[in-house]
Please model this.
Amino acid sequence: MNKSIILSLFIALMSCNLNSVDNNYDPESKLKELGVELSNPSSPVANYVNVVRSGNLLFLSGKGPLKNDGNYIKGKVGIDLTIEQGYKAARLTGINQLSVLKSTLGNLKKVKRIVKVFGMVNCSSEFTDHPKVINGYSDLMVEVFGQKGKHARAAVGMGSLPSDIAVEIEMIVEIE
Model:
């Protein structure tokens, strides 16, 4: 390849990267618009940590729907809780995970992409609307991070979850 072709490709790549920068990207302002307040992340309840960094990836441990009063939203979705209540539990879990991210990064603008979400729903074996529940989490990530919040995902049912919590969700995040 000659030098002029290489230079042209380099300039094209650089202009693509510059054009993809969103100067309005401000997840923390978005949280304020949504009326979402982050809290201090809860401490792990066993022998693990809230987050592990490997290169430019953060692996967030599973969190549940811990309310400000220190209690969890508990029960089986489809039996004790409606799909809508499960959705709200998943959204609250998303807020709790954002608290971990904020505590880890200092500023949510450092989030380059929500890569993967693994959502577990406490439910009976007959329940099949897991995606509708975990949408509470996914919808929040897109509301806060826009296109950077769209992610790969699994939404599965579990016969039980720790302390009978309604959902548990873990996440992988790419950072700048």
In short: The beta strands are 51-54, 57-63, 111-122, 152-158, 167-175. The chain has four helices and five strands.
